[in-house]
């Protein structure tokens, strides 16, 4: 070691003289994406080193719609060199940001400088293609109204529904759940296609989250039912389409209650894969009923319960730990579990955002107190270990995971 430690007054003639294996050891200790980016910017040799090493993925970035990013664990804004990211609308799961465009939207991966074009949400191909109305016509003069809401109802109410979540499941498959108010439906398309596809008469659900887990698309509804979405190919165009939505776990409906002290516990559900299992995180956000009848989240007052999907027995199983090595980053747009030890962090923690699902605002966050919180599964305590520089914008903030 002594040989490679530069003596005072005798620095190595160039950074690139530092042996690459030593540089690699240093790099391994830097969990922040910002550090990795700076490391790679030192010289071509270091960039090559960074590429060659099988490093654990860096910590996620927190992305704000004004184009500011925070590279965890730092509280200082990070800018992508030579890359304007302001104006993204939201984020898709993983490394993608969603930008609006006149005739649709496109995804941008600021890490790899890759883009993917998507059709506009106003262009949705119906299945069956001749779906025209909100009733079944038996052809004998009897028309029966659908007893539930379908895409045809949503379409009637708003030309362009709100995008709640978008997942790039594979290079050929993009799934989104979009809605109007609390009702939502799943759309599918192939990147670059001219339209999305939807099952016109499928019952709309109140989806809370969606996850691509072990090659299948799962969605969870507000009453904690876990659904699996079967996907097939349109025989004529080859485009992906939903062939069937089936229930795999029946949940328990759960309704918020207003207590005598005017508080209520509103619920948010998230699906996240951890250690090869599919987890449902139930987050209770304590809220208070204000004089004017609106409901406001009480700053920092959150509770978490975690359940594992037991697909074999079709049930949710209560779990009290994520495991010593797991940390979950929870967000409306994207949630992920990562291994904590590789970053020297302590495990069994949930990082969460005061974010919202745009079209289902049951309560609001006070912009002055929105934040990133960390819930410790072992102590049930919440802390704010990160600098509180993220107020105001947090509601539309999102985690961005550098491409693995
Ligand atoms: C029309 O057809 C439907 C479905 O076959 C049947 O349920 C209904 O009774 C029929 N109505 C009349 C008026 O025949
Ligand atoms: C849907 O997927 C399930 C689980 O993979 C499978 O058992 C079922 O046969 C599929 N149904 C259709 C209609 O594809
Ligand atoms: C309000 O009442 C509920 C139910 O008794 C309790 O759990 C909660 O802690 C109370 N909240 C406040 C802010 O007093
Ligand atoms: C989950 O298990 C823990 C420990 O056994 C218990 O305290 C908690 O109430 C359970 N939660 C649910 C929702 O069943």
From TrEMBL:
<dbReference type="InterPro" id="IPR005174">
    <property type="entry name" value="KIB1-4_b-propeller"/>
</dbReference>
<protein>
    <recommendedName>
        <fullName>KIB1-4 beta-propeller domain-containing protein</fullName>
    </recommendedName>
</protein>
<dbReference type="InterPro" id="IPR036047">
    <property type="entry name" value="F-box-like_dom_sf"/>
</dbReference>
<dbReference type="Pfam" id="PF03478">
    <property type="entry name" value="Beta-prop_KIB1-4"/>
</dbReference>
<feature type="domain" description="KIB1-4 beta-propeller">
    <location>
        <begin position="70"/>
        <end position="376"/>
    </location>
</feature>
């Amino acid at each position: 070691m002594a040989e490679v430690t530069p003596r005072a007054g005798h620095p190595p003639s160039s950074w690139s003289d530092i042996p690459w294996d030593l540089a690699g050891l240093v790099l391994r200790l830097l969990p922040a994406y910002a550090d990795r980016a700076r490391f790679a910017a030192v010289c071509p040799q270091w960039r090559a080193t960074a590429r060659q090493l099988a490093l654990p993925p860096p910590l996620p970035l927190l992305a704000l719609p004004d184009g500011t990013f925070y590279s965890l664990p730092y509280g200082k804004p990070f800018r992508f060199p030579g890359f304007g990211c302001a104006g993204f609308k939201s984020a898709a799961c993983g490394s993608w940001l969603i930008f609006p465009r006149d005739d649709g939207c496109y995804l941008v991966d600021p890490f790899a400088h890759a883009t993917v074009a998507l059709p506009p949400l106003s262009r949705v191909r119906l299945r069956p293609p001749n779906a025209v109305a909100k009733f079944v016509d038996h052809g004998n003069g009897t028309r029966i109204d659908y007893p539930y809401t379908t895409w045809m109802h949503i379409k009637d109410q708003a030309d362009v529904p709100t995008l709640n979540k978008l997942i790039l499941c594979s290079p050929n498959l993009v799934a989104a759940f979009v809605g109007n108010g609390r009702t939502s439906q799943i759309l599918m398309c192939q990147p670059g296609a001219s339209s999305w596809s939807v099952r016109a008469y499928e019952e709309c659900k109140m989806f809370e989250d969606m996850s691509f887990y072990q090659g299948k698309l799962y969605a969870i509804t507000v009453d904690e039912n876990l659904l699996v979405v079967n996907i097939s190919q349109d025989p004529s165009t080859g485009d992906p389409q939903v062939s069937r939505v089936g229930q795999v776990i029946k949940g328990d409906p759960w309704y918020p209650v207003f207590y005598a002290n005017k508080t209520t516990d509103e619920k948010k559900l998230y699906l996240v894969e951890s250690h090869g299992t599919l987890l449902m995180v139930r987050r209770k956000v304590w809220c208070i009923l204000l004089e004017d009848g609106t409901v406001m989240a009480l700053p920092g007052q959150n509770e978490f319960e975690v359940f594992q999907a037991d697909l074999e027995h079709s049930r949710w199983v209560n779990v009290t730990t994520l495991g010593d090595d797991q940390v979950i980053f929870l967000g409306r747009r994207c949630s992920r579990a990562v291994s904590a030890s590789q970053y020297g962090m302590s495990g069994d923690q949930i990082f969460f955002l005061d974010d919202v699902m745009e079209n289902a605002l049951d309560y609001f966050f006070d912009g002055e107190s929105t934040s990133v919180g960390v819930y410790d599964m072992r102590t049930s305590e919440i802390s704010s270990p990160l600098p509180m520089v993220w107020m105001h914008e947090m509601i539309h903030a999102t985690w961005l995971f550098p491409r693995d």
